[in-house]
Fold this sequence. Notes:
The structure holds 2 protein chains of 2 kinds.
Chain A (H helix, E strand, L loop, with lengths): L8 H9 L4 H8 L12 H29 L3 H5 L12 H11 L2 H32 L5 H13 L6 H10 L6 H5 L6 H13 L2 H9 L4 H12 L1 H17 L2 H6 L8 H13 L3 H21 L1 H13 L1
Helix pairs in contact in A: 1-10, 3-16, 5-16, 6-10, 6-13, 6-15, 7-10, 13-17, 15-16, 16-17
Chain B lengths: L1 H4 L1 H9 L9 H41 L16 H8 L1 H33 L4 H13 L2 H11 L6 H8 L14 H26 L3 H9 L5 H29 L3 H7 L10 H11 L3 H31 L2
Helix pairs in contact in B: 3-14, 4-14, 5-9, 5-11, 6-9, 7-12, 9-11, 10-11, 11-14, 13-14
Amino acid sequence: MSVTRSGPAITxxxxxxxxxxxxxxxxxxxxxxxxxxxGLSAPAAIIRHAVLLITGVLILVPFVxxxxxxxxxxxxxxxxxxxxxxxxxxxxxxxxRALTEAPLPQYMLNGFVVCAVILxxxxxxxxxxxxxxxxxEFKGRHLxxxxxxxxxxxxxxxxxxxxxxxxxxxxxxxxxAALVFPFVVSPFGIFxxxxxxxxxxxxxxxxARLDGLSELAIVWRIMVPMALPAxxxxxxxxxVSHWNDLFWPLIAVRDENLMPPSLGIMAFKNEEAGNDYGxxxxxxxxxxxxxxxxxxxxxxxxxxxLTTGAIK
Amino acid sequence: MMAEIVPLPxxxxxxxxxxxNSGPPLAVRAHRLAEIAVAWALAGPALGxxxxxxxxxxxxxxxxxxxxxxxxxxxxxxxxFANFAEVFAxxxxxxxxxxxxxxxxxxxxxxxxxGLVIALLIESGKCRAFYRAIHFLxxxxxxxxMAIAWEALLHPTIGLLNQALSxxxxxxxxxxxxxxxxxxxxxxxxxxxxxxxxxxxFLAGLKAIPQDLYxxxxxxxADLWLxxxxxxxxxxxxxxxxxxxxxxxxxxxxxxDTVQILTQGGPGHASExxxxxxxxxxxxxxxxxxxxxxxxxxxxxxxxxTLIQARVMDKRVHYQ
Lengths: 312, 320
């Protein structure tokens, strides 16, 4: 029975077999003819498109409405209307206010910095550990892997209280460090990298050693490049989660100049904009935009990264 | 660092027996020791950080939950399970727990049914990548910002929803300020956010169903789309279904952003959910011991669901 091969594990499976050409492997595992799609008659195909277009439009309504309001002057926003385009274009004013009245550029910059630092440190910490778990024999390996699995089990919100106290004790609350430190090690990162590293043949490691590469050099010059699909998937997962995270930043920082985008937009809503929807929607649009654009450009990688990440 | 010292003597004793091969042992032993040292050097930082940032904090939560400590207070005393007794006796916590369960009970079936239907439709024809991208978009969009967009949609006077309803003569409501509608509306947002995620998981499951089964069903006379669906597709999706239900339930139990942005638990306690209670008690009221007890309740629920999920995955492996 191939029940085992169904489900989200499939992506991990196909990759552990052939981790290097991840993209090609995934394309090849696709069945040539889609099972349920065989013999879909013309009327059925039209109904299918109709239904999917309707659900698609419903899904997009909040995005469309957000962008639409961000283009309208207050008068038009408060005059009920279904039209997407404004009668009087107010985009420049709304976006200017969003960018100047709240420190929105600062929020975005904070988001970039925090996400980048978290991701870099996570990879620096996780890849060597994953290599040790995958390719080296040592006492305590099972213990370490056990800790990784326990780490996977714990939802991060559970750690907020003790980490808040820890941050307080070290005097780093309300700094960039507070936004970063809980995430410097990712059990999911270690787990994912280990899976991929295990699939790389031992011969390659031996050959690299014979060539005089140090173990650390093997991690960075052999393992990580060969497991690039995993690194990309993990990077997307990490950046998207931390760009979107509200819970921890809400606890960790109070200073507006340190807020990442999701917390910043909340502050903007509460303080400045209130019911001033135009600039608020402009700010929301700008915060959603970077990831949305990246998603459209690299859809397959995003879906891969976010689903493997979210199911762990 | 301490690890480099501890395991060495033992390993020397076990891995290199003294009696046989007197030639290589020295080199082998040196190599083995070097490998162990390198392994610990590579894994050390991750190990230390895992212990400091994951393992010890969990123990700390349990410890705090057994005290009456309030953040900032200089004294505390051991109160055993008084916090848990207080939590479960507290009407507002009960409401929060009940709301969370209602929320989950709306979000999970809604997400599963819509995600499955959309996955089946997408898989059965053309433009798959296009439809998949549209339906997946909410799952990755910043929920805080999208919650603000939803607030505008749901606005009692200028919101698109009420405009549309009154245009076709249906009653309108103040969706986020009415205690009867607020929780279902938040659940709709939860479904909107998660259905793309469920859809993608179902798509992966559908792809894994072997074509042979459809051929066999065809020969047996199940040539209609609906027949194939009920005889092959749905039964074969069973394990994936169980898995998706739990994953989506986990997501739903972690709902926080929409409540924080849109309702702050109100009106009254009508939209207060577990994670919001955890946040408010721990970090706004600084009732640390109480907050820790709520955290433990949350942890127990999430861990229980995850363990069920692990068992389901295990079963699937055994089918092989």
